[in-house]
Amino acid sequence: MPISIPIARYRFTARLRQSLRLPDYAGSLLRGLFGAALRHLACMTRQSTCGGCPVQASCPYTRIFEPMPPPDGHKLQAFNAIPSAYVVEPPPPVTTRTSAGSAYPAQLEEGQELVFDMVLTGVALEQMALVIYAWQRALAHGLTKSRCPADLMKVEWVDCTGTPHLIWSIEQPRIPGHPAYLNLPPAPEANALQLHIYSPMRLQQQGHPIKPAHLTPRALLTTLARRVALVLEFHANQPQWGALVSGISEQAQQLHDNRELHWFDWVRYSSRQRQEMTLGGVLGRWTLRGPAEIMTSIWPWLWLGQWLHVGKNASFGMGGYVLEQQKIDG
Fold first, then answer.
1. 26 in Cβ contact with 92 (< 8 Å)
2. Which of 90, 142, 198, 242 gets the most CB atoms within 10 Å of its CB?
3. Which of 121, 108, 104 has its CA nearest to residue 10?
4. CA-to-CA distance for 171 and 150, rounded, in angstroms?
């Protein structure tokens, strides 16, 4: 299994030019703004859709935001679209709490800062300068229906410990070299791992969301392993992970779990369907425990999921969690 993985998290800080009221969950809002700005900057043909475009395979927009259709007969699974090479991580839902224990305000005033993260993988990391410029354009264009403009002030690379390092600012716009990759740590000597789920995690079965009472370690780990393997195959040129997915289902059945989860619904507007849609997922704590060899086997997937997220709509930040190691007797 590869140890060095081209995945990095970046923190964007913008200053508001007027007051802004955030939706309950801002992931869809931020993702839509970024995608529109990136397409405007990157599209050469100005076609209304990307399908059939002669430069689709090499276009930065499709490589980052709207990947090519999947190949026929993929050995891992049948799927409709290759997962994106990015995850937008918005401020926490306004009804939840940050790690510091204070609620993120729904209402921000002129001059205050809007802070959000973005995770990039492989090919998207190669376009870091374009990504930053697209965010500049998107934020200046304005957020929400009120078109509240904001100025991108700085971008920081966030290392594995959560420590931010400045890589771009208005005063210093040149991006320095930095270690834009993850080094997979060895599995901990713990018989339990707890997921602190901070953004709605929506796992599905036959197209329907799985509610907290019916969630299983198998549903979590099979969904997560397939996502991680596909992202790394198509965006990081690491197809080796796919061979490890087949055993996940059996391993997950040997796990026990404890759930302290609740359902969180939020509403987003779909520009494609031109209507509001209610989406939801679970928030809270989910503890998995099992034999040492099983915990070692599932560790890489769970650890990487802290960056890549899991479940439906992961690209706009749903299914985000932080891992905590535990020792449980018995």
1. no
2. 90
3. 121
4. 16
CA–CA separation, 135 vs 35, rounded Å?
A: 9
- Where b means 16+ CB within 10 Å and e means fewer, 123-162 reads bbbbbbebbbbbbbbbbeebbeeeebbbebbbbbbbeeee
CA 73 to chain centre: 26
Residue with tokens 């707890």: 194
Long-range contacts of 124-130 (CB under 8 A, 24+ apart): 124/63, 124/64, 124/85, 124/86, 124/235, 125/6, 125/8, 125/180, 127/60, 127/63, 127/64, 128/175, 128/180, 129/175, 130/38, 130/41, 130/42, 130/60
First to last CA, the chain: 31
| Best CA proximity match to 279, nearest among 195, 199, 196 | 199
pLDDT, tens digit only, all 330 positions of the chain: 557 899 999 999 999 999 998 888 899 999 999 999 999 999 888 888 887 888 887 888 888 898 767 777 676 665 677 899 999 999 876 654 444 444 556 788 999 999 999 999 999 999 999 999 999 999 999 998 889 999 999 999 999 999 999 999 999 999 999 999 999 999 998 889 999 999 999 999 988 999 999 999 999 999 999 999 999 999 999 999 999 998 999 999 999 999 999 999 877 666 655 667 778 899 999 999 999 999 999 999 999 999 999 999 999 999 999 999 876 665
Q: CA 329 to CA 190: how far, in whole Å?
A: 11
User: How far apart, in whole angstroms, are the C-alpha atoms of residue 18 and residue 105?
Assistant: 15
Structure tokens belonging to residue 287 = 């503890």
- The whole-model pTM stands at 0.91
Tell me the three state secondary structure of residue 117: strand
Among candidate residues 194, 184, 216, 61, the one with its CA nearest the CA of residue 124: 61
Give the tokens for residue 330.
């018995």
Mention every residue, 6+ apart, whose C-beta is less than 8 A from residue 83.
67, 227, 230, 231, 234, 314, 315
Q: ∠ CA 280-285-227 to the nearest 5 degrees?
A: 60
